[in-house]
Design brief:
homodimer; alpha/beta; Rossmann fold; 2 domains; six-stranded parallel β-sheet; 11 strands; about 15% strand
C-alpha cells in the first residue's frame, strides 16, 4: 500500500505555479491577483480565507479580501461582485461560502464573471467542463485528478465508483473522470443515498472515491483488493487518545481499508492540500487566459 | 416484453402541450413561437426543419425559419442570432446543425440566449441541468426521461448503464438520471469507447440505454433478463427484403434482444418521436418562463 501524499503533490504543483507566476508577472508588470469576498463574521470562513491569502503569498500571487458586513443586502453584494468583475487588476474572484441565510447564494455565484470564477461553481463552467470545453474546474475534483495524475495512476478503462453526488465534488468529478482523454476515460458509476446494493458496487471499483461526508463509512469489505482509494471526507470525531480529545477522520475507515489498497489518500494530507493548490492553479489559468487568450 | 411506444407517449405529451399553448395564447394574445436558423442547402437539414415546422403547427405554435446562405460569415450569423435573441416575439431559437465547415458552431451555440436555447446545447443550460437547477434540457435525453416516466418505469435505485458519451445524448442523460428526485435517483454508469469488459457492465443494467451510433451493436448476451432497453441509434442498413432496399435499425439488435426485455423501444417509433416532442415542450417552457417567471 502506498500513500497518495497530497502534500507532496501540492508542493510540486506549487513549484510549477510559482514559475508561471514569475514569468507572467515579468511579462505583464504586475502579479496575478485573487480577490475574495468575505461576508460576516463566521470564524471558519475567516480562517479559510486567511489560508487562501497565505497560499497566494507562497506562490507570489497577490490577494485582496473584501470584508463585508453580515447585513449586506443581495443587491449590495451583487454590486460588489460586478465591480470586481470589471476590475482589470483582478484575475480570479471567489465568494467565500456559506453566505448568511438572507442572501441567495446561487444568484451571487452566477453573477461572477465565468472567466474569473476560480472556484468553478458557475454553471457555465460546469457545463463547459461536462462538454469537454475549456473551463475552470472546481477545486476538489480538479485536485483529485491532479493527485491521480501526479502518482501516475492509470485511468483509461478503469472502473471508477464515486460515492456522493454533491455539486462541488461528486457530480463534477464523475463527469471529469469519464471525459475523453488522458486524464479521463474511466468508466464511472456515480452512487448516492438512493443507490441499492452499495457494497456490491464499491467492490467493482478499481478507483473508489468517497465524498459523501459520512465519517468512517467505507469499510474493508466494500473495497476490492488492490483498489486505489481517494477519501474526500474530513470530520472531527471524539478520541480520548489524543491531546485535543478529537481526531480528524475521512469517509474511509483508513485502518481497516488501507491494507487492501494499492494506493490510498491519508486524511488529513490527501485531498485537502490538492483542493487548496487547485485554487491557485485556477487563478493562474484565469490570468493566463485573460492575457494570452484561450489555452 | 412490452414496447416503449414513443409515438403513443409523444401524442399524449402533445395533447398537454396543446392545452398549454391554448391557455398561454389566450393570456398573452399571441402564440408561442419557435425560430429556426437554417444555413445552406443541405437536404437533410431542410427536411428536419420542415418537420419541426409541422410539429409546431400541430400543437398550435408558430414557427419562423430564417434561411441563410451557405456563404454567410461567422459575424453575419452571430448578428442574426443576436437579433432573434432580442426579438420579444420569439420564445425559442434553434440553429439547425451541422453548420457549413467555415463556421464555428460552438461560438454560435453560445451566442443563443440561454433562456431561448430550446435545443439545450448552451453550456449554461448543461451546467444548470447537471446542478439540478431550472434549465432547458437537450431534446433526446429529455425525451428519454419522459418516455420512461410515461410508462411508469421505476427509476429510484435502479442500475442504469448508458452507452456512449456524446454531448447531446449520453453525457446529459447520465447526469439527468443520476439527479436527486423522482425522475432521477438511478445509479448510473457511463460507458464509452475506452470501457473494458463492456458486456459484463451492460449485463448489470436494470435500464440499458444504447446511444453510441453503432447499428445492431447490443446483442442478447449483453442484456440482463427483464431489463428495460432504450435504443437511441437509428441507421440505414441494406436489406434485400424491403422495397426500398434498406431498413432502419438501432444500436440494439432488436430481434435478438427484445425477448429478454421487460420493455424495449422500437426503432423507428421509440426515442425519435420523443426527441421531436421535447423541442415543443422546451419551447412551451421557454415561453412560460419568459412571461410567468421561473417555474
Amino acid at each position: 500500500m502506498k500513500l497518495l501524499d497530497g502534500k507532496m503533490a501540492a508542493e510540486a504543483i506549487k513549484k510549477d505555479i510559482m514559475s508561471d507566476v514569475d514569468r507572467w508577472s515579468r511579462e505583464f508588470g504586475r502579479k496575478p491577483r485573487l480577490a475574495a469576498i468575505l461576508v460576516g463574521d463566521d470564524p471558519a470562513s475567516h480562517s479559510y480565507v486567511k489560508s487562501k491569502e497565505n497560499d497566494c503569498r507562497q506562490v507570489g500571487m497577490e490577494s485582496i479580501v473584501y470584508k463585508l458586513s453580515a447585513t449586506i443586502s443581495q443587491e449590495g453584494l451583487i454590486e460588489c461582485v460586478k465591480s470586481i468583475n470589471e476590475d482589470d487588476g483582478v484575475d480570479g474572484l471567489i465568494v467565500q461560502l456559506p453566505l448568511p441565510e438572507h442572501l441567495n447564494e446561487q444568484e451571487i455565484i452566477e453573477t461572477i464573471d465565468p472567466d474569473k470564477d476560480v472556484d468553478g461553481f458557475h454553471p457555465l463552467n460546469v457545463g463547459r467542463m461536462v462538454m469537454g470545453l475549456p473551463s475552470l474546474v472546481a477545486a476538489t475534483p480538479g485536485g483529485i485528478v491532479d493527485l491521480l495524475d501526479y502518482f501516475h495512476i492509470p485511468l483509461q478503462g478503469k472502473e471508477c465508483v464515486v460515492l456522493g453526488r454533491s455539486n462541488i465534488v461528486g457530480k463534477p468529478l464523475a463527469n471529469l473522470l469519464s471525459r475523453k482523454g488522458y486524464r479521463g476515460d474511466c468508466t464511472v458509476t456515480l452512487c448516492h443515498s438512493r443507490t441499492l446494493h452499495l457494497e456490491e458496487i464499491t467492490r467493482r471499483a478499481d478507483i473508489l472515491v468517497a465524498a459523501m461526508g459520512q465519517p468512517l463509512f467505507v469499510k474493508a469489505d466494500m473495497v476490492k483488493e488492490g483498489a486505489v482509494v481517494v477519501d474526500v471526507g474530513i470530520s472531527r470525531v471524539e478520541n480520548k487518545n489524543t491531546k485535543s480529545g478529537y481526531k480528524l477522520v475521512g469517509d474511509v475507515d483508513f485502518e481497516e481499508v488501507a491494507p487492501r489498497c494499492s494506493y490510498i489518500t491519508p486524511v488529513p494530507g490527501g485531498v485537502g492540500p490538492m483542493t487548496r493548490v487547485s485554487l491557485l492553479k485556477n487563478t493562474m489559468l484565469a490570468a493566463m487566459r485573460r492575457n494570452l487568450g484561450p489555452i
